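Long-time lurker. I teach an intro course on protein structure, and each term I like to show students one example going from raw sequence to a predicted 3D structure in token notation. This year I'd like something fresh instead of my usual example. Would anyone be willing to generate the tokens for the chain below so I can use it in lecture? Attribution to the forum is fine with me.
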Amino acid sequence: MTIEKTFDNGQLNAETSSDGEHPGEGSSGAEPGEATTVVIAEHGARIARGWRWLPIALLVIALDQLTKNWIVHHFAYGSRLVLLPVFEITLRYNRGAAFSMLADASGWQRWLFTGLAIAVAIGIIAWLRRLDARRQWLLAISLSLILAGALGNLIDRMRLGHVIDFIVVHWKDAYFPAFNIADSAITVGAILLLLDAWVGGRTSASGQ
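-- Reply from a regular --
Happy to contribute to a lecture. Here you go:
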């Protein structure tokens, strides 16, 4: 844990003198009367990094792969099971991005989205390393969900050459593109990311 304390320059000199140092030693060269910020690190205390939330990503990836595997073994391609008037389960193959974007391209999209997923995963892991797991928990959770979604679909592309989609929602004859658990994780993660930015903006504004 890191603690920041702000002293008047005279107070800082007095406190350093009490530690056996000469007045003025250890100060930042500030003029008398100026405020000086000193960072005090407690020995043995460590900041919990955003990596602490990575188990969420692992759980979502496991759920995504288990559901896809179950669907493949219990549904024929294109078959449908109507659960609600607006909700169906099916089996479809998607060679595009989330929600079937660029699914009809000639095949180059597989490698494009594979490269993008790898780059996004590396970037998110590096970002999580810089976060405080306690103070920035909402941001860390949102990034973990996006990471899970990217890796869940990446596994499909690397293993099968396409992504397995099986969730269909619609209103009457208006159908939303089929999706899966990984796509849902990306969507929820993006919403939480925006929520974190909004909450952070309000907190900053109220603190001014």
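Some talking points for your students: Helices lie at 9-18, 54-74, 108-129, 137-160, 181-207. DSSP finds five helices and six strands in the chain.
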